[in-house]
Design brief:
This protein is mainly alpha-helical. The chain is 59% helix and 7% strand. The chain has a two-stranded antiparallel ribbon.
């Protein structure tokens, strides 16, 4: 079982791409937010992020520093902002074992989209390397190579 810091890291990795959408849900202009979120994140990830946020957000709203960390991650989702949010969520989890167990259970639920990981791609321009495949499935297909420097090894 992960400790509060590890669980906070998992939660932030799930929530970071979803937070801009999650924060719009309460606004009147939020029509279509769920559809946009599903397009951007996938239905399964969006549903999990919504469920996690439903449980976690009341605690975040009670803590000004946590609210500020969320705002900072939305405005600038870099490592420093994410680290601050991880720290705030860790503090919330350490103070609430029941919430920690609920969130841990949610995070452990099978996620069919993540299990399939349809087609993940990375293109490293500087080295001319392209990697494609299912990074969540060790048996996935991976293609790579340096097309520009094939003879220069």
């Amino acid at each position: 079982m992960p400790d509060a810091t590890e669980l906070a890291k998992l939660l932030v990795s799930l929530l970071c791409p979803a937070l801009p959408f999650l924060m719009k849900i309460g606004e009147k202009v939020a029509e279509g937010v769920s559809a946009d979120a599903v397009k951007a994140l996938g239905k399964s990830s969006w549903d999990k992020a919504k469920n996690v946020w439903t449980k976690l957000s009341p605690q975040v709203e009670q803590k000004g520093a946590a609210q500020e960390a969320v705002t900072n991650v939305i405005q600038r989702p870099d490592e420093i902002s994410q680290f601050a949010l991880i720290s705030q969520i860790r503090d919330i989890l350490e103070g609430n074992p029941e919430l920690t167990q609920e969130l841990l259970k949610l995070m452990q639920e099978k996620d069919s989209e993540h299990e399939r990981a349809v087609d993940k791609s990375v293109n490293l321009q500087s080295g001319g390397v392209t990697v494609r495949g299912d990074f969540h499935n060790p048996g996935g297909t991976f293609v790579g190579g340096d097309q520009h420097n094939a003879g220069n090894k």
